[in-house]
Design goal:
Elements: E1 2-7, H1 10-23, E2 27-29, E3 47-51, H2 57-68, H3 84-103
Antiparallel strand pairs: 1-3, 2-3
Helix pairs in contact: 1-2
């Protein structure tokens, strides 16, 4: 039995679990019930995944490298903000015009 992966992130631990289950790779997780993290114990749950068969190590490492690789995210175009001073000016003009119309 070899240590394959350790994570304190519950989402990553679940992703590792689903990936290994999907590929039929047998493993043992030190924290079998991740839903009880923080109840009567530490808030940080450390999940350790151990491979039961050493022959699966290369395939499991390759799969986790693919699944856990950082996604390539397109850089969003910067949003131009509306100038605050212009907004204040427009609101002031509208208030003056409405006030003049109400008086007149």
């Amino acid at each position: 039995m070899q240590l394959l992966y350790t994570s304190t992130d519950l989402a990553v631990a679940q992703l590792v679990r689903v990936t290994l289950d999907r590929e039929g790779i047998e493993y043992f997780c030190s924290d079998a019930d991740l839903s009880v993290g923080g109840i009567g114990g530490p808030l940080e749950v450390k999940s350790r995944f151990y491979l039961l068969h050493d022959a699966d190590r290369e395939r499991a490492v390759r799969l986790l490298d693919e699944v856990l690789a950082a996604p390539k995210i397109a850089v969003p175009t910067p949003v131009t903000k509306f100038p605050v001073w212009l907004l204040v000016l427009v609101v002031a003009v509208v208030v003056v015009v409405v006030g003049m119309a109400a008086i007149g």
